[in-house]
Amino acid sequence: MKKGYWILHVDVTDPDNYPKYIAADAAAFEKYDAKFHVRGGRCTGPEAPVKSRHVVIEFESYDKALECYHSPEYQAAVKLRQQYAVSEIVIVEGV
After folding, report:
1. Would you state the torsion angle of the CA atoms of residues 79, 82, 83, 87, taken in this order, to the nearest 10 degrees?
2. Which of 16, 61, 84, 87 is least enclosed, having the fewest CB within 10 Å?
3. Are 51 and 10 in contact (CB under 8 A)?
4. pTM here?
């Protein structure tokens, strides 16, 4: 079975409150056995401007990645992310 991944690109607009989102998303990620491959760290956009923070999260399958996103646990957290950051999320199936 192919893995599912979330890829997020984030600019935190409220660094004082952004940790509330990080704390809130933990329940969903634990429930769906998410594995972080990238969570912040140095980055370079050699061909175009990029957001300041990047996250790659692995799930057992594409369907599990979607289930996690649509779960009540994550939907509560996403409201905080949208309040404290400008971000893009893509959910993709791995190879």
Report:
1. 160
2. 16
3. yes
4. 0.92
**What letter would DSSP give residue 60?**
S
| Pairwise CA distance, residues 56 & 37, whole Å | 5
| Domain region containing 79 | 4-93
Cα separation of 41 and 70, whole Å?
A: 27
pLDDT at 68: 98
By the 10 Å C-beta count (0-12 exposed, 13-18 middle, 19+ buried), 44 is classed as: exposed
Q: What is the pLDDT along the chain (95 residues), one digit of tens a residue?
A: 899 999 999 999 999 999 999 999 999 999 999 999 999 899 999 999 999 999 999 999 999 999 999 999 999 999 999 999 999 999 999 99
Closest by CA position to 56, among listed 34, 80, 78, 31: 34
Q: Domain count for the chain, please give it.
A: 1
